[in-house]
Amino acid sequence: MMNTTHAAMGVASAAPLAFVAPELAPAAALAGFAGGAFPDLDLLSGQHRRTLHFPVYYSVAAFAASALAVVATGPATVATAFFLLSAALHCVTDAAGGGLELRPWEATDDRGVYVHPASRWIRPRRWIRYDGAPEDLVLAGVFSLPGLFVFDGAVRTLTVVALAVSVVYVAVRKRLPEIETRFLR
Ligand SMILES: [Zn+2]
C-alpha cells in the first residue's frame, strides 16, 4: 500500500475524536498522519518493511499509550497514542498488499512484513495487488474523506497534498523500476 494510504488511515482513525474531543482531534490527526508515514522511512536505510516495521511491538505500545492517554488525557499523550496506533495499522495492513519485488505486480516475492518476535516474514495477501495499484488509490481516496471533510487547517492541507502525490504516484508506478534501475547504475 502507498505511504499516503497509510497516512490517510492514520488521519481517519482520529476522526471520531473530532466529535467527542474536538480540542484534541487536530493533534491526534497530525500524529496519525505522521505515524502512518513513519515506518516507510526504512526505504531510505536498512531493510524495508523490517527495520522500522513492527506490527506486534507498535500494537503493544499503542495499547499502553492509549491506556495512558485515557488516564492522563492531553495533546501529548493522545498524539503519542495515535502515532503508535497508526504505525501499528500501517505494519499490519502492509501484509494485505504486495511483496518486496522490484515489480510487485509480478507477484514473485513472499515477504509482506517482518514480524520481529516470530523472527519471520508474513506473506503478502495481495488484496491490494501492489503499492500504487488503482485499488490502492481508491482506498487512499476513501480514507482521505475524513481528512477533507471532518478536519480543516493543516490536516486538510496535508490530505490534499497527499492525494495529489498519490495520483501522480499511481500514474507513474509501473515506470518506476526502470527509472530506479537506471538511477542505481
Ligand atoms: Zn510499510
Strand and helix layout:
Elements: H1 3-13, H2 17-20, H3 25-37, H4 55-71, H5 75-94, E1 113-115, E2 120-122, H6 134-149, H7 153-172, H8 176-184
Antiparallel strand pairs: 1-2
The chain binds zinc ion.
Please give a structural write-up.
The chain has 185 residues and is mainly alpha-helical. It has one domain (3-184). The chain has helices at residues 3-13, 17-20, 25-37, 55-71, 75-94, 134-149, 153-172, 176-184; strands at 113-115, 120-122. Strands 1-2 form a two-stranded antiparallel ribbon. Helix 1 runs antiparallel to helix 7 (153-172). The longest helix is centred in the middle third of the chain and has 20 residues, at 75-94. The chain is globular and about 50 Å long. The protein binds zinc ion (ZN). Zinc ion (ZN) binds next to helix 5.
